[in-house]
Amino acid sequence: MLNVILLVLVALIIFVIAIYNKLIRMRIRVDEAWADIEVQLKRRYDLVPNLVEVVKGYAKHESSVFENVTKARNLAMQGGNMNVRAEVENQFSGALKSLFAVAENYPDLKANQSFVELQRELVDTEDKVQASRRFYNGMVRDYNIGIAVFPSNILAGMFRFTVRELFETKNEAEREPVKVSF
Known about the structure:
79% of the residues lie in helices and 0% in strands. The chain has six helices and no strands. The radius of gyration is 23 Å and the shape is rod-shaped. It starts with a helix and ends in a 24-residue tail after the last helix.
């Protein structure tokens, strides 16, 4: 009888350890997916000043556009929680759209090799940001399901695993990547 009780106790301990380790792995994957978004956003932030400088050379009288892009970039780089971050990213994307709208008015700019290369890199980065967001949201979905289903929800509550927020935008138009077309 004692052997059966010990066997059940050992099985229960192994079960608890397995669920706990699974939840930890899932939480780390969510953190890693967020770091991937950060890497792509940093790359985008690094490209924008170069792009602004190239456009400035052609459109000197459009200073308010350049100021708005710079302010939005600086605000976006400050970070914050997921909801704040999504909103700031939307403002930054809008500022970039206005920069490209200005560039449309300058045919010589559209032919400039530096501008074309920066445009290509920004489009590539926007695609990577979108892919990183999808990957992050998939990891968050799996993690949130993992802490919500029985029996792992019991352990998740005991060890204070909390639901993570998805990376979402509020405005349907802002859900699209920055469109760059010349």
